């Protein structure tokens, strides 16, 4: 299979009519917004027709896209989460985009640094960032007000968080439910590791480091929320989300993707703010959707040029995408007055300078499941945090080594 060249031209396309296959996993509330953008693009470009194929991210998209490429029938352009780039790059599913970025005139100063810098694997760019979707703090104004707190003053520090939880507990409410699941407790734990000054893996991605003193302290802080009566034990999947909407807790750590969902609940009094700084550092977990180009058995320069134009157009018109519950990666869109008017998205965009992504490691998705199992055991009070993290780190180190062998990264 031959990787296609990306050296031709800029963002203009004057070739013969082409149809592009565009694959993504936008099956949720953001799907209609992307469909609208694709329709607008098609209306404005007579010689390019984009056919969007939507499927569930996992397992469908991340299995079907590599299989299609392997059979020689892969899509032209797609979207991938940033922590999937390394694996798909190593497998030859997607192609480098350095020349694409150069020909479009895209530069680091055009994007949020964290989104731009995280698109590299083995010294080459594989993703053109579209957005960032971070964790944020949703606060229930009614619960805060009934506890005698300022409903417009969410906590910003560890001390404020602890003090408000005590006031809320005194009013008979467990104010901060800890989910034992990845959505969203696992994202919360990753954030806290970084906030306490730790890292999930070492710089060379050969060893898990979340069992450091910082990682143990982060997990202990979450477990103590349960032991101190601020969260029930054994919180079910999404039970924390349901409780927040039923005025049964006050502070809910969840992603920006919940903004529009909460807006549809007329009985919920809520706001959203940057995450409180619990440790010594500011940090917030996030992920990012990136445009990718798929490897082609028979490269078509016309389709390549049209794909570049499509990616660039969507990025420049991503305000509509922001309305669907995202933070644009492009500075020009994020710094516009129209984006600032999106109150909730703009509030969470204040975290952009310190957003953190999962590291660019091959096979990271599978390695992360080991961490999630350890976090689950600790939050369910089955194992002490240090024991759970130590055991998980040992298993993760073996997987990291196996993946280095699998993807040919051992020198």
CATH architecture annotation name of the largest domain: 3-Layer(aba) Sandwich
Instruction: Count the domains.
Output: 2
CATH topology-level name of the largest domain: D-Maltodextrin-Binding Protein, domain 2
The biggest sheet, with number of strands, parallel, antiparallel or mixed sense and barrel status, is: 6 strands, mixed
Distance between the termini: 24 Å
How much helix is in the residues? 40-55%
Broad structural category:
alpha+beta
Mean pLDDT value: 96
CATH top level of the largest domain is Alpha Beta
**Counting H and I runs of at least 4 residues, what is the number of helices?**
18
Q: Can you tell me the CATH superfamily of the largest domain?
A: Periplasmic binding protein-like II
What does the overall shape look like? globular
Return residue spans where pLDDT drops below 50 for at least 5 consecutive residues: 1-9
Radius of gyration: 22 Å
The multimeric state of the shown protein is: single chain
* Counted beta strands: 13
Our estimate of the beta-strand percent is: 5-15%
Report what the structure shows:
The chain is of the alpha+beta class. It folds into two domains: 18-130 and 288-349, Periplasmic binding protein-like II (D-Maltodextrin-Binding Protein, domain 2), CATH 3.40.190; 134-286 and 361-406, Periplasmic binding protein-like II (D-Maltodextrin-Binding Protein, domain 2, 3-Layer(aba) Sandwich), CATH 3.40.190.10. Helices cover 44% and strands 14% of the residues. The chain is built from 18 helices and 13 strands. Strands 7, 8, 9, 10, 12 and 13 form a six-stranded mixed beta sheet that branches. Strand 4 and strand 5 (124-125) form a beta hairpin.
């Amino acid at each position: 299979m031959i990787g296609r060249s990306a050296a031709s031209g800029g963002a203009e396309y004057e070739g013969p009519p082409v149809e592009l296959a565009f694959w993504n996993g936008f099956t949720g509330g953001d799907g209609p917004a992307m469909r609208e953008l694709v329709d607008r693009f098609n209306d404005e470009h007579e010689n390019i027709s984009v056919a969007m194929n939507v499927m569930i991210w996992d397992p469908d998209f991340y299995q079907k896209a590599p299989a299609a490429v392997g059979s020689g029938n892969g899509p032209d352009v797609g979207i991938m989460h940033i922590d999937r780039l390394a694996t798909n790059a190593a497998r030859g599913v997607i192609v480098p985009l350095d020349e694409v970025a150069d020909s479009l005139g895209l530069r680091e100063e055009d994007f949020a640094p964290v989104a731009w810098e995280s698109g590299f694997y083995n010294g080459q760019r594989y993703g053109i960032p579209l957005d960032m979707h971070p964790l944020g703090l949703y606060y229930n104004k009614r619960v805060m007000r009934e506890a005698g707190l300022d409903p417009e003053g969410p906590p910003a520090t560890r001390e404020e968080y602890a003090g408000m939880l005590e006031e809320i507990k005194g009013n008979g409410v467990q104010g901060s439910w800890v989910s034992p699941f990845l959505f969203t407790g696992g994202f919360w734990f990753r954030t806290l590791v970084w906030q306490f000054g730790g890292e999930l893996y070492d710089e060379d991605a050969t060893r898990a480091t979340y069992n450091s003193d910082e990682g143990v302290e982060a997990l202990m802080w979450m477990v103590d929320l349960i032991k101190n009566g601020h969260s029930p034990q054994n919180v079910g999947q999404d039970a924390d989300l349901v409780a927040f909407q039923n005025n049964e807790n006050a502070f809910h750590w969840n992603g920006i993707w919940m903004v529009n969902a909460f807006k549809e609940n007329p009985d919920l009094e809520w706001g959203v703010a940057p995450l409180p700084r619990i440790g010594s550092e500011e940090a917030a977990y996030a992920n990012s959707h990136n445009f990718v180009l798929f490897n082609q058995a028979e490269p078509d320069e016309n389709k390549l040029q049209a794909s570049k134009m499509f990616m660039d157009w969507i990025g420049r018109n991503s305000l509509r995408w922001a309305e669907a519950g995202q933070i644009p990666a492009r500075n020009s869109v994020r710094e516009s007055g129209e984006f600032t008017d999106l109150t909730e998205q703009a509030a969470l965009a204040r975290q952009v300078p310190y957003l953190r992504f999962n590291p660019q490691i091959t096979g990271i998705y599978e390695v992360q499941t080991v961490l999630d199992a350890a976090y689950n055991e600790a939050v369910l009070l089955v194992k002490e945090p240090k024991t759970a993290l130590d055991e998980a780190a040992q298993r993760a180190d073996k997987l990291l080594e196996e993946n280095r062998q699998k993807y040919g990264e051992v020198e």
